[in-house]
Amino acid sequence: MVSSSAARRLASLLITAVSCAYTAITLVYFLQGAFYGVTAALSMTAVVATHYVNMRAGLRGTRPPLFPATLALQAMATYLPDFLLPGGMSALTAPMLAGSLLVLLPLRWGGPLVGLMMLSEGTRLWWGLAGAHVTFFYVATIATTGAMIYALVRFVRVTAELEQARAELAEAAVLKERLRISRDLHDGLGRSLTAIALKGDLAGRLIDRDPAAARHEVGELTQVAREAAQDVRQVARGYREMSLAGEVDRAVALLESSGVSAQAHLADVTLPERSEAALAWAVREGVTNVLRHSRATTCTITTSLQGGRVRLEVANDGAPATPGAANGGLTGLAERTAQAGGSCTTTPTGEGGFLLAVEVAA
């Protein structure tokens, strides 16, 4: 796709070519005398100079610093020579003024003004006995040249806007990927790091009185560390295949090894991939919060089918030790659940416990 700088160079070249073409035609005034030739040359210089200032600003999507004075000066330079030169000169300069009007003014104003210019020029030429063909030609050039200049400037501006939009989309994609990695690392590695810390503490307490049990815990710690390394690789690749049943099995094992009595009751239902992944993440985040932020001694994980939706509940008997401690992870979980078309709620229970409930489409 054409870059905005290339589009601006192309438009500038074409607009300059048009200006040069009209300027060259004014040389015919020298055939009528030196005075007329010099007057025409000076008048065209003033038109081209103000036209350049106006177009330079228009191509950048702005207005000249002295606007609307520059537009008024171009209009004066366009029509004043009609009183000094035989036959007038606005037929050669009005097309450039039409371009400036369409570019710098709203179309609801610029369009009617260009129409008024065409009517004025046609009337002047017709009463000057220029002939129907000549009159039509010069009147048509006002519309065609003005429209061409306007189209070139719009082309440049649209190209610049598209270029900016692409840059913003690319930046948004990078930010989205960073958020995904951050969320996946938090949700995925949080459980693994919590398990590593718990098993490391347990192994340290058992190493003197029960070396065999300590070695077992160290072995499981090593396995959890390998799973964490695998999680990191999957996050880097952007691929996270989650299984609800597998995640529940790992959660129960982790809870039991951490001294929390755990039970799981899963409904026999086949879920869409996005729904299953959302529930699996919910189990991981819920159990991580139970281990990290609560004083729970029991935890129950259940799923049930209710009217075309599956409800997951992770309930424990210990509220968070520090109110709001788990909010960061639960916020990420709520966002992930919403992306799967579900909902996520957390409520304290009457027995001093805590309930995480997630619903997704079955």
Automatic annotation (TrEMBL):
GO molecular function, one term: kinase activity
Signal sequence, renumbered to the chain: none
UniProt xrefs under InterPro entries: HATPase_C_sf, Sensor_HK_TwoCompSys, Sig_transdc_His_kin_sub3_dim/P
Record has Kinase as a keyword: yes
TM region(s), chain numbering: 83-105, 125-153
CDD domains hit by this protein: HATPase_UhpB-NarQ-NarX-like (cd16917)
Domain Signal transduction histidine kinase subgroup 3 dimerisation and phosphoacceptor: 177-243
Annotated keywords: Kinase, Membrane, Transferase, Transmembrane, Transmembrane helix, Two-component regulatory system
Entry annotated with the keyword Flavoprotein: no
Record protein name field: Sensor histidine kinase
